[in-house]
Amino acid sequence: MKENFPPSVRPVRGAADAPVIPATPPDPGALAAKVRTLAPNMTRSMQRVAEAVAGDPAGCAQQTVTALAIRTGTSEATVVRTARLLGYPGYRDLRLALAALAAQQAAGVPPAVTADIAVDDPLADVVAKLAAEEQQTLADTAAQVDMAQLEAAVTALSAARRTDIYGMAASGLVGQDLAQKLLRIGRIAHAHTDPHLAVTNAVQLRPGDVAVAITHSGGTHDVMEPLRAAFDRGATTIALTGRPDGPVTQWADIVLTTSSSRESELRPAAMSSRTSQLLLVDCLFVGVAQRTYESAAPALAASYEALAHRHRPRGARG
Predict the structure, then answer these.
(1) What InterPro entries would the database entry show (predicted)?
(2) What's the pTM value of the predicted model, to 2 decimals?
(3) Shortest CA distance to 168 belongs to which of 229, 216, 237, 202?
């Protein structure tokens, strides 16, 4: 079993496997997105550090690790652990990112707009709030995506003999979307939402195949079990998760981190995480289509032609 390393120091398998490039520190502009994504799963002391750096990047950038620990009522070790969880090798790197973020804000970059939905909100307000949250989720995901990991995922999927995708409930619907997109461009792909079928298919995989696990929590057992089986058999494994430190990453060669807005009673996590997951699915699909364009273009045309008659009004010709 793999050890559960942070994404920035995740080990890679041998050179014979699909290329896996260690994650790089996020762009300063992605810091607030990382905090929003990871804070719900942090300890309370780490949350205080994360909230401080996201809320006052300019002030925190001027503080030593000891000063920030005193300010947040935590310890120096907690500050360093928080920096690493946010994707920075150490506190010094986090301070540099905070200084850059403060400069961006001083230049007039607008703050994020978020708002909870109340049970008595007019429908027009619900539409406006949901639109703002969706836009923020998409912006957060785009800002924090690790391009090296995304490139590695596209490379693996483009060369895959076969791709299996595992997801449960709302994540299962996202998995089905990825599978049908890959099928339209001639790739062999199957989405599994039944845990038993997922495992029985996973044990048939081998080097040259790809397995994709989609789990916002990063800890869905019915998704981790087939991913581990695929990993053990040498398939290249990819995790789409909102928890880059979650258990599922133990068996993932490549980790793509999704974002989500705050969960509320009228906006469960499945709603916002789905938006983020679908963005990454579209990125993977377009990337694979670009890499395999000579075969993808005729496959897409053939699938369109095969279904065209189903989209014409009855009785229409041509």
Answers:
(1) Homeodomain-like_sf, HTH_RpiR, RpiR-like, RpiR-like_SIS, SIS_dom, SIS_dom_sf, WH-like_DNA-bd_sf
(2) 0.69
(3) 216
